Amino acid sequence: MNEAKPIVTCHGNKALFSSLNQLVSQGLPKESCEWRRSYGRPPRAVNLDASFVPYDADILPDEEEKTLVSRPYFHIYWTDCDLDTYKQSVRDDINEWLGALRTRNIPDWLIVVVTNEESKVKAKLLARTSVIDKVKSDFCSKYPERCITLIEPNKLDSKSSESWSQLFQRLRSLLLQAFNRHLNKYEENMRSRREKRNEPGWNYFSYFICQEELAFMLEMLGLKEDALIQYDELDATFDQFIENFANGDTVKWLTHLMKPCTCWAGVSLSKALDLELREEVKQNNASLLEFRNYLFSRQAALLFQMGRTWEVAMRAMDYLYNTVVEMKALEVEAPTGAVGCWGFLSCLEVLRACNDNNTTQLDEKFALYTANLWDFAHKKLRELGQMCSLMPGMSPSSQQLSLVVDLVAGMGLSMQNLSHSGQTPVDKLRESLSSTESFKKHYLELCEQAMGTYKYIGRFRSARMIGLELADFYMKIKDPTRAENFLLDSIKMYQQESWHHLADGTMLQLAECQKLLEEPDRYLKTSCHIACSPNLSLNDRHRYFQELMLTLQKITGHRTEMRASQAIYLEELQFSSLSVNLNDDLALVVVLTSNFPEPITFDKIQVNIKKCSISEALEFVDKQQQQHHHPQQKQVSHRRQPSGTHILVDKMLNFQPVTKTLPSKLDFHTVVERSKGRLVSCSIGCDSAHQLLKRLDSAGSNHSTAEVHKEDYAISFSLASVTLSPGANTLSFTTQIHEKGIFHLSQMCFSVQSLDLLKPISAEGTSFKVNSLSPEFSLKPKHSDIFIAGIKQEGILTCTSGSYSLKVPSPLTFSATPHFTITGDGGSTDVILGAMEAGFSQDIPVQVYMSLKNNLAHHLQSKVNVGVTEWDRSYSKQTDFVHPFNPTHRMFTNRKDKYFQLVIHSSTSVDLCLSNPVLEAPGCPDVHLILINRAEQILPVNENQSLTLLWHVVINTPEISVLDLTFSCDYSCDLDVDHLTRRYECMCHISDFQTQFVLTYNISSIEEDKCCTTGETAIMDIKIKQVKEMILNEGVKLAYSVHANGTVWALGGKSSGVFTLKDGKYNTVLDVVPMQPGFLHFPLVTLHRYVDQQDDHVTVDHVTIVDSDTNIPLASSEKPKRTVSQLSTSSFMSHLADFGPGQVYNESRSKQIHVYPCHTTSDIDISIIQ
After folding, report:
1. What is the pLDDT of residue 1007?
2. How many alpha carbons fall within 13 Å on the CB side of residue 1157?
3. What is the pLDDT of residue 114?
4. Interatomic CA distance for residues 465 and 458, integer angstroms
5. Crossing angle for the helix pair 158-195 and 14-27, nearest 10 degrees?
6. For the whole model, what pTM was predicted?
7. How many CB atoms lie within 10 A of CB 864?
8. What is the Cα–Cα distance from 958 to 895, expressed in whole angstroms?
9. Could you tell me if residue 496 is left (phi over 0), alpha (psi between -120 and 50 degrees) or otherwise beta?
10. 829 near 792, Cβ under 8 Å?
11. CA angle 864, 868, 872 (to 5 degrees)
C-alpha cells in the first residue's frame, strides 16, 4: 500500500494540465503541513502527495460509498482562457462540472485560472473585469478560497514562484479539509459498527476490513505509526474475543475458524500486502493460521517501513506463542506436528525478513530478539525431529514416514526468488525432514546460530542451556569430546548460580561422557564429586564411590591432585595456643566432615604450615594487640561459616567458583486475579526477588579455573593411616617448629593411593606465632630488696637459657658503666656459667659495688653487659641502685646571727651508721662553722629515722653573696662485704642569706594609755632599719606592703608605699581598725625591692601631678609622673622584687595585741526612713 496515493481529478483544459502535471505532482509533497484531527488527537506533520487523474463523472463516488483508498478526494478545474472564451464556452463547462459534483454532494473542489503574457497584451484595452473576477463572481462568491490564479507557471521569476507557493498552500489546506471530512464520517461509521460487536450477526472480519481501510488511508498519508495502531487495535479486539470464547462466551463468526487445519504454511513477509490472503479474510474464508499470518505480515510491513526491524523480531515471539494458545482455545484440530511446522516456518521467515531489512549490523536490540527466534526455531526443529524419529539413535517407522509426507504437503509452495540464500524456510524444513543427516546439519546450524547470538548480547546462561542440549545430541551421535565441553560449561553455569542440584545432576552425564573418552584422571575427579554430592541419591553415590576406588587401582606411575572442597568440609581448627616457644610441642585439633558415602582410609593426612609474609605477620600482630586490649574478643580457633564457606574458600573441583551464595529455600507468595467470579490470571512472586535477581555480568565471570597444586609439606602436621567415617571426624595433630616467626595453615592433603585431595585453608584465624626465647640474665641483691650504692653487696646473677642450651661450662665476661664493678664470689674476676639445657636457669653468686661519686640522684642506674663465650653473644642488663642518703639543708636567722641546719634522710630499710660529721666552707676563711651537736656521736639512719645536724655560722666580713659548703661524714653498713668505714661527701650552695634590714611594727590606740577596742581606729607604726654592717647604694628604692584578713583588721589609707632610707632608717604610720575582740596577730608587713620601669615613673612622697591638657594643637609636653596611689594594684606589684630568705628580719611577725570589745549604752537611736 505504500505506492497508493489519494486521488485528485482534473478537468478543463487537458493540454494545460498535462503540461503542469509533473510540476504539481513534484511540488505538492515538498513541504510538510500540520494536520489537526478531531477528538483531541495530537497534530501530525504530513507530506501530502496525490495521484492526479482526468475527470470522469462515472468515477465520482456516491454519498453512501464507504471506501477511503479508491475514491477521489478532490477535484480541480484548470483553465487559461481569455474573457471571450470564458463567456462562450468555459463558463458553461464549469457550471456543468460543478453541477455534477453537487449532485454527488461533493464540496471539495478548486478552480485554477492560469494567466500568461499574451493575455496581458490582449487586456491592454483595460477591460473592466478579468477572467478570475468573472469566475469568482459566477461560482465562488460564497467560497472565495475555491478559486486561485497561477501566474506564468513556466517562468522562474518571483511572481510565478509566489503564485505556485500560494497554489500549493491552498491545495494542501483544501486536501486536508477533504480528508478530515471523509475520515470523520468513516470513523463515526466504524465506531458505530464496533459498538454493535456484541449483537447477533456481527462479524469481526467485516469490521476488520472496515478498520483496515482506515489503516490503508493513514498509511497512504505517510502516518505509519497511526496505521500500526489500527492493526494493534484489531489484534487486541481479536484476542479479547478468543479469551471470552475460552471463558464460555461464544460468537457465531468464530465457528469457521474452528474447522480442522489443512494448511500450515508460515507467514510470508516478502510482500507488503498479500491481496489473495486479504480476499480470503474479506470473504470470511481464512483459517486461524491464515488470518494470523496476514495480520502479522501487515504489522511487520509497517514496522519495516518505519525502520523498526528489531520490533518485528520482538513481536514475532508473542505472535508465535499467542497463535498456538488461540488454536488450543478454539480446539482447532491439526495433524501432529502441523503447528510445529507452522511455527518453524514462520520463525525462519521472520528472521529472513529481519536480516534483509536490518541496516545496522551491530544493533544489540535487534540481536536480543532475533536470538530468541533462533532459540525458538531450534526447539521446534528438535520437537519435529523427535516426532518423526530423526534424532540420533532413532529409526522412523512407516507411520512416521507417512507423517513426514503429510507435513510436507501442508507447508505450501516454495518461492525460490524470495530468498537471498537460495533456500527458503520451506525448503529448509523439507530438507531437514528428508533424512537424519539433513536434520543433523540444520539442527546444529540453528543451535550454533542461537548460541552465537546469545553470546553476542552477553546472555551466556541461555547459550549454555542450548549447549546442554547439544551435549545430549553429541552423546547420542557418539561424539563425547564435543559433549564434554558443553557439559562443563553448563555445570559451571549451574555452580555460578548456586543451582547445585542441577550441577550435580549434570555431573552424572559428564561422568558417562568422560568414561567413554577413557580419561582416568578426569573421570576420577568427577566420580569423587558425585560420590560426595549431598544432592544425589545414595545409589548413585555408592556406585561412583566404587568407581572411584577401582579407578585409583588403575592409575599408576603418577599422582593425581584435586580439590577436596566437595569431599571434605573443615568445620573447626583449634590450636592449643596461638603462641608457642621454639622446639615446644604445638597441638592442633581438626574437626571435619567426610561426605564420602562409605568409610575411607587415607594413607596420610597432612596439614601444611607456611610462614607468613610481612603483611600477614603485621596483621597477626595487630589482632594479637586487639585481643590483648579486649580479652573478651579472644579467638583461638577457626570455624567454618554455616553459609557454605567450603564453596567460597575452596573452589569447586575442576570448575569456576560460585560468585554468589544463594539460600537453599525461597519464600514465595501467590497472586490470583479474578473478574466477575472467573479466574483471570495467577502467578507466584518471590519476597526477596530484588536481592536474588541482581544482574551479574556473565561475560565478566569467564575467568580461567585456578589450578590447585600440592604445596611444600616440609613443615607440617601429619598423621598416617587414618580412616574417616561418613559425617563428623576429629583429628589430633602434634608437631614441633624449629624456626621462629609467624606461621599459618595453608593447605590440607588427604592422600589415598595415587590421589591427593587438597583442601586450601584460609589464613584468617589459622595463624600462630613461634617465639625464640633468648637467654636472659637478672641481677638481684642477696640480703636486701634493692642494691645500695656506696657499699659492696652480695648478689645473685641468674641465667635463664630460654630456647638455647649450653653443652659445656663457659666463662662470663662483664663490661659495665663507670663507677660500677661486678666480681665473682670472694672478689674473684673469673665467673663460670655451668652447662645447662634449654628452658632451665642457673644462679651464680657475685659481688656488686656502685660508687657514690657525689651523685645526688635518688635512684642510680647502671648497665652491665654479660658475655657468654660459648654462645658468642653479649646480653645487656639494667641494674638499679638506690642512693643511701638524701640530704636537705636550711638557713635560720636570729637578727644578724645565722644557723645552718642539715637533715640526712635514708631511702633504705637497712641501718647506716654515720659519724664524724664535718662542715667546711672552702675558700672562705672569714666564715667559721661551729657544730651544735655532739661531735663524737654515732648516729643510725634508715627510711624511718633521719639525722639532723646544726651549725652556728659566724661571718667576720660585712657582705658575702654566695657561700659554698662541703659536708662529709663517715658511714658503715652491716651489708658491706668488706666491712669498711667509707666516707660520704656532698655540696651545699647558699646565696643572699645575710640580714640587711630589721622590720619592726607595733599597734596602739590613738589615745595614750588606752587599750584597743573593736571598731575604733588604732595606729600601726612601721619601722625599717638598716643593719649597720651592710652597705647599700644611695637612692635605692624599697617598698612595703601590708596584708590583713578583712574580717580581722580594716586598713585605712595606703596599704603599700615606696620609700628610700634616710640615715639607714624609715618610719611610717597606718590607720587600722580591729574588727574582732581577742588576741589578734598583727597584720603582715612585707618588705620588697622596688624596680623602676620606663613606662611608669613614681615619685616619692609629695609629688604634684602636671596637667598635660593644652589648647595648642600637637603641643609637646612631658609625660606626667604618677604617684603610687595612682598605680593599679597589678602594675604596682609588677615593680616589686622579693628579698632572699634571711635578708629581712621581721621582729614583729608573731606578735599579738589584746583587743577589747566595744562598750555600748542602753540607749538606742532608731530612725525610720520613709
Report:
1. 82
2. 2
3. 92
4. 14
5. 80
6. 0.62
7. 20
8. 14
9. alpha
10. no
11. 115
In the chain, % helix, strand, coil (3-state, to 5) comes to 35, 30, 35
Q: What is the pLDDT of residue 1163?
A: 55
The CA distance from 1144 to 1141, in Å, is 7
The residue among 1119, 1116, 1091, 1092 whose CA lies nearest residue 1105 is 1119
The H or E element containing residue 849 is: strand 841-850
Q: DSSP string covering 519-583, please? A: -HHHHHHHHHHHHT-TTS-HHHHHHHHHHHHHHHHH--SS-EEEE-TTTEEEEEEEES-SEEETT
| The three cell numbers locating residue 1070 | 597606718
Q: Which pLDDT score, from 0 to 100, does residue 1084 have?
A: 92
Specify the 3-state DSSP secondary structure of 707: coil
Cell of 597: 558415602
pLDDT at 1093: 65
Spans in the chain with pLDDT lower than 70: 1-3, 63-65, 117-129, 360-362, 413-422, 624-666, 675-680, 687-706, 763, 853-858, 1028-1034, 1093-1130, 1160-1170
Report the SS3 class of residue 920: strand
B/e letters for 350-366, b = 16+ CB within 10 Å, e = fewer, are bbbbbeebbeeeeeeeb
Contacts of 830 (CB under 8 A, 6+ apart): 811, 824
Rounded distance between C-alpha atoms, residue 453 and residue 482, angstroms? 20
Domains of the chain: 7-195 (3.40.50), 204-408+420-458 (no CATH), 560-659+710-771 (2.60.40.10), 781-882 (2.60.40.10), 886-991 (2.60.40.1230), 997-1108+1115-1156 (2.60.40)
What DSSP line would sit under 88-100, residue for residue?
IIIHHHHHHHHHH
Q: How far apart are CA 359 and CA 695, in angstroms?
A: 30
Number of helices (H), then strands (E), belonging to the chain: the values are 25, 49
What is the grid cell recorded at 259? 474447522
- Helix axis angle, 520-531 to 500-517, nearest 10°: 150
Residue 646: what pLDDT? 38
Grid cell locating 108: 471539495
Block residue for cell numbers 595614750: 1008
Grid coordinates given for 427: 525448503
Cβ count within 10 A of residue 974: 11
**How many CA atoms are closer than 13 Å to the CA of 1167, on its beta-carbon side?**
1
Which stretch of DSSP H or E encloses residue 493?
Answer: helix 480-496
201: left (phi > 0), else alpha (psi -120 to 50), else beta? left
Question: Residue 837 in contact with residue 805, Cβ under 8 Å?
Answer: yes
Backbone angles phi, psi at 1050, to 5 degrees: -115, 125
Grid cell for residue 276: 489473495
Place of cell 507468595: 669
Count of C-beta atoms within a 10 Å radius of residue 748: 23
What residues have CB less than 8 Å from 528, skipping those under 6 apart?
548, 562, 566, 567, 653, 755, 757
HEC profile for 744-773? EEEEEEEEECCEEEEEECCCCCCEEEEECC
Q: How far apart are CA 270 and CA 261, in angstroms?
A: 23
State residue 1130's pLDDT score.
Answer: 67
Distance of CA 900 to the CA centre of its chain: 78
Alpha-carbon distance of 216 to 69, in angstroms, equals 7
Q: DSSP for 977-1035, please give it.
A: TT---EEEEEEEEEES-S--EEEEEEEEESSTT--EETTS-EEEEEEEEE-TT----TT
SS (H, E, C) 445-491: HHHHHHHHHHHHCCCHHHHHHHHHHHHHHHHHCCCHHHHHHHHHHHH
**Assigned C-alpha cell, 593:** 566432615
